[in-house]
Structure formats: structure tokens, C-alpha cells
Amino acid sequence: MPTPARRVAYTVLRRVFEQGAYADRAFAGEAGRARLDPRERALAMRLTFGAVQRRATLDHVIAGLAGRPVEQLDPPLRAALRLGVFQLAYLDGVAPHAAVGESVDLVKRDAPAGAGLVNAVLRRAAPEAPALIAALRDETPAEAALKHSVPEWLAELWFAERGAEEARALLAAINEPAEGALRAHGISPQALIDAGVPARLGGEPPESLVLTGPWDVASSSQWREGLVFPQSRASQLVARALDPQPGERVLDLCAAPGGKTTHLADLMAGQGEIVAVERHPGRAEALRETCARMHAGIVSVETADATAYEAREPFDRVLVDPPCSGLGTLQSRPDLRWRASPEQIAELVAVQRLITEAGARALKPGGRLVYSVCTLSRAEEVPAIDGLELEIARETLPHRHATDGFHIARLHRLSG
Questions:
Q1: 374 is catalytic
Q2: How far is residue 56's CA from residue 167's CA, in Å, rounded to a whole number?
Q3: What is the pLDDT of residues 66-79, one digit of tens each?
Q4: Does the pLDDT at position 48 exceed 80?
Q5: Is the CB of residue 375 less than 8 Å from the CB of residue 324?
């Protein structure tokens, strides 16, 4: 019988590529239903995310070994082969007979007639796949797209905007497992470690931790008590850049799911007012629940369109965290690379400008605005807005900072 981890990975792969499911959400649901222990969950996530991320490279190898395009294979065979080749080519410590045998067992239930093909291809892949992948080059964007498994347009974008050397390093980094980062809320990070959270201090910002072992955050007492929030260290830098002070009025545009909102409340020591704006009613309600769990009592949630937000009175500080292409989060959102497009970026840029303009209108003279996007696309960096002056812009990069890619800009409103 296949292990629970492999069963979950196979199911999620099928949901992602056959039903359009989001990999992170589908994985959370399937892993929860399977009641995986922390180590099984960690393996299942590695298998799932890795096979989704590496789809283009895996399909290249599978097509060569099977003698036909992957699109001509039945969906269950595609999922089992991607999962098997990923283990054989990229995972150390996995016995080849286990990767082959369990992938064959997975497909027997859904497409028994294809079990022989899966067995034959994976038996060839065991000795051949690592060498086939090692032979791939990344001198050009087209070569890099295949080697690092991204759409060709994305490789071209990063080669053009960052140069070949930086682009190659970035492309290699986005296929590594994402750092498991947490934010301590209302408690010191060391106190969480002392309480048994398997983590180390994250350094910057000071409230950050980095997991050192498997840990199911959502089932922990620390989560239920509002003492911890899963959040990348790059994302935690955003509230620090805004630097809200106790007693101030702060506006948070596009606030769900609430990581930055509750971080702002913590930095303000529960004194002052935060207005958190979220357009979608369901996400707004989830944001209210998050704020309640995190004891962020100074937050009031408004269900409104951030592009047209009009403040009743001005704010001391404004956080603009608009929708973006998310190209800085490809490690933790593995299917996003297959969903994003240049056309989508062009549409998002227009929305980002409208939200930034709304934030500028709501800001007091001399007040501070922070613009942040979790992407690595020059077009989505902070727009120039009349009346706002740029103080400083910061970028985090997965291959340099071991966290999500973010663009964070701090601006102030001119007086008068």
C-alpha cells in the first residue's frame, strides 16, 4: 500500500492539474483529512510542492522515457509519473524501489491498464532521470525555463530585469522548500522555543522564528491562544517599515488574511485604532475571526473596495498591500507560476495604482505610507503618486535572504 504521504501528494497533484485547485489549499485539506503526523505531513508537502513546481522539467523527462508527449497520457498516469520521477531525480534518501513501486500502486486504483507503463517508465527513470536533468543548461531564458521549470515568459522577464547571473540564482532558489517562518505575537520568540516550538530565532525582525523541524501550527495550543502566526520574515518586515506608534490611527488596505494587520496591532501595544479594509465579505469575516483569535481588539474591519476608499478622517499611517502577481512566493505557492501571466501583471499594475492613490488621499500631511507587494516584477514596484515622496525602498530575494521576495517602499505625504 502507498504511504499516506504519497497518497496525499498524488491526490493533490490530480486536483491541481485536473480541477484547477490551489496547491496550498488543496494540500491543507487533504493532509487534514488524512490526519498525517508532522513527519508524514512534511514529506507529503515536499512531494506535492516539488512535483507541482518541477512540472515542466518532469514532463520533459517523462516524454523522453515514455516516447510520447505527457499530454497524451491519462491524468492518473501523469500524476503518478510526475510524483515518481520527482522522487527519483530530486529527493535524496528515497529508495528507488519505493518510489517506483508505490507510484505503480497509486495508479492501479484509477487506471489499472496504465500500471505497466508507469512501471516501465519509472524503472528507466531510476538510473536515467538524474543524468538527463543534470545535462540541462540555463544559458538562455528558454533553456532556463526548462531546467528550472517556469513559463518561458518568466525566465525572459527575470533575465531582462535582473541580468542572467541573478536570474539563474533566483530561478534555482524558487524550487527549494520554503522557509517555515513564524511571528511571535504578544510573547517573546524565546518563550515559544522554551515552550517546545521546534524553531530558532529568526533575527530580523526580532519577533520572527524559523522552524527547525516538522510542526503543525494550526493544531497547536499557541495557535489557538493567538501567540503565533505563520508569516514569512519578509512579510513581517512590512509592519516594521510602517512603524506604527501606540495611540495612532492606522489604515490597512487589502488587509486579509490578517498577518500584517495583527502585527501592526501588536507593535501598537493595543493602543490606538486600525481600520482594516477588505473587499470580499468572506475574507473580511475571516479577518475578523483572526483578529479576535490574535486579541487585536483595536482593529475594526470594513468591507469595502480599496480602489475607491474614502476616509472619513485622515490617518497617521497607511499600509497599501495591494493584490500582486505573487512572483516572490513561488516556493510556498507552487502552482502560481503556472497561473501568472504578463497580461495579469498589466491588469494588476492599474489596480495597484488606484489603491495607492486611495491610500495617499487618506494620509495626513507628513504621515507615512508603506507600499508592499510580494512579487519580483519591476512593473509592480511602487508607483509615483503626486503628493507622496519616497523615503526608502527595500527588496528581499529568496536566493539572498532565504525568505519570500518582497518590494517594500516607505513614503511620506508632503505637508501643505
A1: yes
A2: 18
A3: 999 999 999 999 99
A4: yes
A5: yes
pTM of the predicted model as reported, rounded to 2 decimal places:
0.93
- Residue whose grid cell is 527547525: 212
Q: Which three cell numbers stand for residue 377?
A: 516584477
Q: Which residue in this structure is represented by grid cell 502577481?
A: 325
Contacts of 296 (CB under 8 A, 6+ apart): 258, 261, 262, 265, 266, 270, 274, 290
* Residue at grid coordinates 518510489: 99
Decide the pairing of beta strands 228-230 and 249-253: unpaired
Q: 3-state SS string over 60-122?
A: HHHHHHHCCCHHHCCHHHHHHHHHHHHHHHHCCCCCHHHHHHHHHHHHHHHCHHHHHHHHHHH
What value does the mean pLDDT take over residues 75-89?
97
Can you tell me the distance from the alpha carbon of 331 to that of 336, in angstroms, rounded to the nearest whole number?
9
Active-site residue, from 254, 291, 324, 374: 374
pLDDT at residue 361 is higher than 80: yes
Predicted confidence (pLDDT) per residue in 166-218, tens digit: 999 999 999 999 999 999 999 999 999 999 999 999 999 999 999 999 998 98
Burial of 71 from C-beta contacts in 10 A (0-12 / 13-18 / 19+):
exposed
